[in-house]
Amino acid sequence: GDKAFAQFLTDEIQEEKKIQKHKSLPKVSGGWELEVHGTEAKLVRKIAGEKITVTFNINNSIPSSAEEDTQEQQKPDEQEPELTSTPNFVVEVIKDDTKQTLVLDCHFPEDEIGHEGEEESDIFTIREVSFQPTGEADWKDTNYTLNTDSLDWALYDHLMDFLADRGVDNTFADELIELSTALEHQEYIKFLEDLKSFVKCQ
User: Which region ranges are annotated with the description Disordered (predicted)?
Assistant: First the structure.
């Protein structure tokens, strides 16, 4: 059983490498520096008096609806549709001279993705906004968190503009999806390779 499993994994790894779009991770334009720790990625950009970081994790970042559709309609020789990783991401804006960090929790609404033609609409939304003490790893639940569901739209627009001024806009979000998808695929191949070694190890 293990031999067959290992053989299956070998074939699967070859197939996945064949369809791998990026041998190395795609860059995000606009002077963002990338740090990757396993499944977590962090993009950092410094502009006058501010540091902006965007953090996301690729785990559970592929919408589940995509997977269900492929099971039902796929004909044997059809290429599997491309899976896209659309992770939630957290933007932190740190000003040099304050002790507070503005934290914006963003996500890609599932129904928004792939709707071409709506030029004006944003492909990501801000879900929550809060202030957190700069430099502390653990965020405090006692800090007020603004949920954008009930937010005045003018304030919401200003927050989106505030992000866009710092390089977090639709172009950035598109590139983040591309980066995340490449990272997810890379980690998936690595997982298959680890699984193969694990299965073969007697």
Answer: 59-87
Q: How far apart are the first and last CA of the chain?
A: 13
pLDDT in tens, 127-151: 999 998 887 767 677 788 889 988 8
Give the span between the Cα atoms of 180 and 106, in whole angstroms: 15
Phi, psi of 134 (to 5 degrees): -65, 135
**Tens of pLDDT along 85-100?**
999 999 999 998 888 8
What whole-number distance in Å separates Cα of residue 184 and Cα of residue 193? 14
Dist. CA 177–CA 89, nearest whole Å: 10
Determine the distance from the C-alpha atom of residue 133 to the mean position of all C-alpha atoms in its chain, rounded to a whole number. Answer: 24
Enter the pTM of the model. 0.84
Decide: helix, strand or coil at residue 13.
helix
Q: Between the CA of residue 164 and those of 104, 122, 130, 152, 171, what are the distances in Å?
A: 13, 11, 18, 19, 10
Torsion of CA 112, 162, 58, 119, to 10 degrees: 30
Residues 13-64 have pLDDT tens digits of 999 999 988 888 999 999 999 999 999 999 999 998 999 999 999 999 988 7
> What element of type H or E holds 200?
helix 170-200
Radius of gyration of the chain (CA): 20
Three-state DSSP class for residue 59: coil
